[in-house]
């Protein structure tokens, strides 16, 4: 059985993993869903200084404090950035990396680097107008993704997402990642790709080509960008398979 550490994406807390975590525990796995500074139940800890390095430290700290070993570290969406920074600091504690609808970040990369200038400027404007100059409220769903990304999110689930979402400290988007060391070749690497990301990978985008080669293993899910809500059982099955 595996030890899973689940890291939520932007605006989300550990709550978003509840159904998937329960399914994994029923299969005999140990599961810890993390809270990042300023998000979820730690929302009150947010400050303008809360950045990407803060979340890297959060992940390393929770694993070390619980003295976890042979960890399968799971990153959803935004969490790919801090997980990429934390992975090399975990040493022999880390057994496997799983990126859910996301991909690892390189040294010096920022989340804003994944966006066009117009989209990045729109986010900055929203932070200035609605987030006191340092927080990014969760956008409306028509600005979050395509129909493929939103597949499986019922009206009830969309309402849940927005009601429990926490404004994202914007410095986590602006701060470049510092990767002190890359995890070694002994660390298993798995990609779980949902609708739109799967299509992107199949389009042979050059910057993502490495994800189609060993040591990477790929598992596809026919659902949107939040599979822990839209397909929690299927996601648990994929994670279980990844750890087999």
From TrEMBL:
Gene3D superfamilies from the UniProt entry: alpha/beta hydrolase
InterPro entries listed in its UniProt record: AB_hydrolase_1 (IPR000073), AB_hydrolase_fold (IPR029058), Sec-Metab_Biosynth_Hydrolase (IPR052897)
UniProt superkingdom: Bacteria
Molecular function terms from GO: hydrolase activity
Cleavable signal peptide: none
Keywords: Hydrolase
Keyword check for Lyase: no
Domain AB hydrolase-1: 4-238
Protein's UniProt keywords contain Repressor: no
PANTHER family, sorted: AB HYDROLASE-1 DOMAIN-CONTAINING PROTEIN-RELATED, ESTERASE_LIPASE_THIOESTERASE DOMAIN-CONTAINING PROTEIN
Official protein name in the record: Alpha/beta fold hydrolase
Species assigned in the record: Streptomyces olivaceiscleroticus
């Amino acid at each position: 059985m595996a030890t899973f550490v689940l890291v939520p994406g932007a605006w989300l807390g550990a709550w978003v993993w509840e159904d998937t975590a329960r399914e994994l525990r029923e299969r005999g796995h140990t599961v810890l869903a993390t809270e990042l500074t300023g998000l979820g139940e730690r929302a009150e800890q947010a400050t303008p200084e809360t950045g990407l390095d803060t979340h890297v430290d959060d992940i390393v700290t929770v694993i070390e404090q619980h003295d976890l070993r042979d960890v399968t570290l799971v990153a959803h969406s935004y969490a790919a950035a801090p997980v990429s920074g934390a992975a090399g600091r975990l040493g022999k504690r880390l057994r496997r990396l799983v990126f859910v609808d996301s991909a690892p970040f390189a040294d010096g990369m920022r989340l804003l680097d994944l966006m066009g200038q117009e989209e990045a400027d729109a986010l900055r404007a929203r932070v200035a107008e609605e987030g006191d100059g340092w927080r990014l409220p969760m956008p409306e769903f028509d600005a979050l993704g395509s129909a493929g990304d939103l597949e499986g999110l019922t009206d009830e689930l969309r309402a849940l997402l927005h009601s429990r979402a926490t404004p994202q400290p914007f410095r986590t988007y602006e701060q470049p990642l510092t990767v002190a060391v890359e995890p070694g070749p002994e660390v298993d690497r798995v990609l779980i790709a949902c609708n739109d990301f799967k299509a992107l990978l199949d389009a042979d985008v050059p910057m993502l080509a490495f994800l189609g080669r060993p040591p990477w293993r790929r598992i596809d899910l026919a659902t949107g960008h939040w599979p822990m809500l839209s397909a929690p059982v299927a996601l648990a099955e994929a994670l279980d398979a990844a750890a087999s």
